[in-house]
Amino acid sequence: MNPNTNTTINTASVEKMVAKTIDVVLNSSPITLKLLGNQKPWVRRFPVKWKKGIAGKSFDGLDKFSTSKSDSFEKMEFNPTGYEINVALSQMEIDVNKARESYIDIVARELQSRQEDMIDDLASLFYTLQYGVTGKEKDFLSLLDACDDGSLGATHYGGLLRSTYAGLKGNYTATAGAMTLALLRTKFAACTHGNSKPDLIVTTKARWASYEVLVQGTVAGHLVLTNTGYPQMTRTGILPTVQALKGQRGFDVLYFSGAPVVVDESCPANHLLMLNTDHLAFRYVKSTDPDYKTVQFAKGSIESVYTDVPKTAGFAFSGFNKPIDQYGRIGHIILMGNLISDSPRHLGIEVSYTS
User: Fold this and answer.
1) What's the confidence (pLDDT) of residue 244?
2) The pTM is what?
3) Packing angle between helix 30-37 and helix 106-125, nearest 10 degrees?
4) 140 Cβ partners below 8 Å, 6+ apart?
5) Which pLDDT score is estimated for 350?
């Protein structure tokens, strides 16, 4: 390779017909897009009722009533943490890009690229157990922390011991058998309380294919009779395929008991997670530094699995600064807060080690 070749300039100053860069490295994580695209403001403490109070009793005549006080309440407490990614550019490359007949703005492309890299990093963190013992972990808490019952290692959640506060246990099951509708029904029932039930199920490509086989008759009927293909999920909701064909981006969906089942390429092997997004959210801390502005994610320079990037107040960008000893620009995108469930008993993990 010619050592004088500048790949940034050469890939940006290109023919008009190929003015869009194709991403061939990042994999999709629909749950990450959904969580980051629907953030909620930061809340540190979540009061919970963790046990039933002192029982009442029957009486007649002049029996005395009970006057004992019930102590049924505790609070989960979480700490925020943060994640940053840099955006670094050579000013010489920018100068050449603007001087030549180019069709790609390398500043906009680099911003979009680093934003999408950050989302991909966060997708990995959201599936990496943090244990949740003290609430002072450096990385964001994960889906596994929220869904665990202690079996994976997250013996505490929100600073409380799950063996004491049983309502803070998620629904974890590991089986050596194949996926079955009966197993899924049992897990779904365990995560359902009253009218509140899982509204999103994420799994791997292999487990999604296993479920597709289980419902093959229904799937075939849907495809043949309606001729619409699979519906798709975006961070804002479910779209019929006819909408997807008009340019909307999404992820193929099957359903189990009304909940969409989607492939998440960051999901650990053999895992299937049942989530209730009414009880699960990324809680963001908004930057008050005047130099950090709310990110308005650009798009259009790169064709990617994350082209439909979230527009949310949680992300902030420092703007570009000029190093004193380099001819370039450097900035930082940050996100502060944590991934929190206010009711882990509405969440579940099924680990199946055979198809």
Assistant:
1) 44
2) 0.81
3) 100
4) 81, 83, 122, 125, 126, 130, 282, 337, 338, 339
5) 92
